User: Fold this.
Amino acid sequence: MHFEPVVLFFLLGVFAGLVRSDLKIPSAIYEALSIFLLLAIGLQGGVKLAEFELLELLVPSLLILAVGSLIPLLAFPVLRWLGRMTRADSASIAAHYGSVSVVTFSVAVALLAQEEVDFEGYMIVFLVLLEMPALVIGVMLARHGVGDVRWGKLFHEVFFGKSILLLAGGLVIGFIAGAEGIKPLDILFFDLFKGILALFLLEMGLVASARIAGLRAYGVFLVTFAVVTPLLSAVLGTLLGWALGLSLGGTVLLATLYASASYIAAPAAMRIAVPQANPALSIGASLGVTFPFNIFVGIPVYLWMAQFIHGLGA
Amino acid sequence: MTTQPMTLLVIISEAVLEDTLIDEITELGAKGYTITEARGRGTHGTRAGRWTQGGNIRIEVVGNAQLCARIVRRLQSAFEKDYGLLMYTAPIELQN
Assistant:
């Protein structure tokens, strides 16, 4: 079993939250950690992206976006009719699961580094691209035929919100600077990456503990949905990654991207665009169930799935 | 020096609404406002302020009674249904 010890910090955070320890990560530090993570992931991708022809990415990008858009579209009817949830709640949860999680992706990157599995740098481009379409689909599903949507506000929130801005910004800076140019920053952004990720996971554990404590209120359906959806999405990602000819590491990351659910960008966007939806349900499922599931069970399973399918081709 | 009777309007709502609320308030004629980050508990559950979107803001507006009533009516009709929103006014004496 592949295991990345950094996820233990998440458990420590959950434990601290459950026993009501006075441990608190000040919000200013949390903000700084998230800025660091987003920039580091962006830079890392940009440096690797410099090795590729950008035009070659066009077709894979479109395919990955198209298949990724299926996730909220398939999740919505399941939530609406099988889960008997309101239209707004179904659409909002579908959007969370269609969108992606940067920290889940970071844990997968850390595991690949530990296992010495290389991956295509342009996977980070897909991370940036996949964050947005599901949110738009979610809003359209929620507002089908009713009321006006503040699209301007939503697009501003998504495109100029810090996560896309820093990821894309880091990507461009890394691309322009290249491996040599970025060297002076290596100590900060690459060598310290795992330590900062550990601190961030500690905070995530603290936040998630409140959600985990409330799990019983979400019902069996939502908890099952939060475990099964990432697995099915990951199968989709593994097959597509393999079909596109991605490397082993690239396939794992694509599966992880599809499997991950957003809990930072999506909640903010959905709160503005679909205010009728109950945020406790969507954040509870994505942060309380899917995130821990992915980092402890999911990512090692996705690695195994990718090894299996790449093994078949060999 | 004379003091001037005015109304203080305090709005406590979700941090995610900050920009939207400020747009509404200034559009209705408020000359200024003060925002502080806030945490607390109410009918919408505990707002611990751990995540940017999980926190509250507290907006203070000083103006005449009519302005404050206009803002209250507008925010009530637009946001009360779907968002956590608490508003109260108090008579104050402006000192400068």
Observations:
- Chain B touches chain A at residues 14, 16-17, 19-20, 45, 48-53, 55, 81-83 (CB under 8 Å).
- Residues 4-94 of chain B form a domain with the Alpha-Beta Plaits fold (CATH 3.30.70.120).
- The two ends of chain B are 9 Å apart (CA to CA).
